[in-house]
Amino acid sequence: MTPENNLAKLNIILPPAPKPLGVYKPLLLDGKYCYVSGHGTVQTDGSLIMGRIGQDLTPEEGKLAARQVGLAILATLKSNLGTLNRVKRVIKVLGMVNCVPEFQKHPFIINGCSELFAEIWGEENGIGVRSAVGMGSLPDNIPVEVEALFELI
């Protein structure tokens, strides 16, 4: 199964590819690598999931927000590459969690994005190296931001 087949099989509807809100590119191609800038919680209607985990959102809601970030990344890849089939594998994911200082389950939250990538590219190619860290705040009070590096075919 190709990534595009997996996307269709899962009945996933991608949000619109987010436009940069600052001076940066949403992604940068360098040879066989695709660097994707930090993405937020863009939903299919273009709105953002907002709130701090441990204060406004439960960990389960945070995990769903991280999945939504993964969907926004897929939208950017598809918009710029034409197809997800050009992506061979996930190399690295950096997940940032907007949470209260006492929160300690950052990896659980970022699993929302990582599990999505594993569904799209399979466990062998969809799981890369990863960091999951807590932040005092994130832009627009989004609960999760993720940046990623992919290897292209």
From TrEMBL:
It comes from the Bacteria. Gene3D superfamilies: RutC-like. Pfam families: YjgF_endoribonc (PF14588). Residues 11-124 form the Endoribonuclease L-PSP/chorismate mutase-like domain. This is RidA family protein.
